[in-house]
């Protein structure tokens, strides 16, 4: 987003108004989602000014809070190296689920995501997959399908759009992409996350549900079961 001018190019000084306008203009993201992820961003700033709250994008790279997590679709787990650098081998394992002549869909995106979880669970001795990561990763997949698709109900996205989004961190205007007409909201993401979970066939942790409220909690940096701050090492 910063690469296209919707957010400050240096990634510094993000405020909720800047984030709300930038994500709405660039990706048709609704204000409810932005308020959640923006709130988590504000929590990640250790030098917060309560009179003028802001955060920098690089502060979102804290391990397991609020965005970075194990079993990423395009990054190494922190155990094995930098979790902030695109990894082509990891991403190729995701692309393997989507033939070159097909779109990303609920079915193949769900299977690709669950494969990453299964792979890292089997090889990473420090693998962390708590209820918040369960919900977050489904919401994350719903988010890229929704933003790269033609609408929030399309449930598919062209493979080349998704590749450019991940591989070059660019919006695929050159390939013909335009932002969805309807806003992407926590409710629309939660509905798609439920379908992704059903397609993956992954058991939902005991006591957990995939809903608008639990999605809001995890994108806000909270534990979806307790409602408490997920990373207790943060200042609060």
Task: Please describe what this structure looks like.
The protein has helices spanning 16-27, 31-43, 88-95, 106-123, 131-148, 159-167, 186-200, 212-219, and strands at residues 104-105, 156-157. It has 236 residues and is mostly helical. The protein has a two-stranded antiparallel ribbon. Helix 2 runs parallel beside helix 8 (212-219) and helix 4 crosses helix 7. The longest helix has 18 residues, at 106-123. The chain is globular, with a radius of gyration of 17 Å. Residues 232-236 have low confidence and may be disordered.
The tally of strands reads: 2
| Element-by-element helix/strand order | HHHEHHEHHH
Strand content: under 5%
Helical content stands at 40-55%
> What distance separates the N and C termini?
28 Å
Major sheet: 2 strands, antiparallel
Mean pLDDT: 90
The structure class reads mainly alpha
Number of helices: 8
Spatial order of the strands forming the largest sheet: 1-2
Which regions have little confidence, pLDDT < 50, spanning 5+ residues?
232-236
Question: Given the C-alpha coordinates, what overall shape results?
Answer: globular
Radius of gyration: 17 Å
Detail the topology: elements first, then pairings.
Layout: H1 16-27, H2 31-43, H3 88-95, E1 104-105, H4 106-123, H5 131-148, E2 156-157, H6 159-167, H7 186-200, H8 212-219
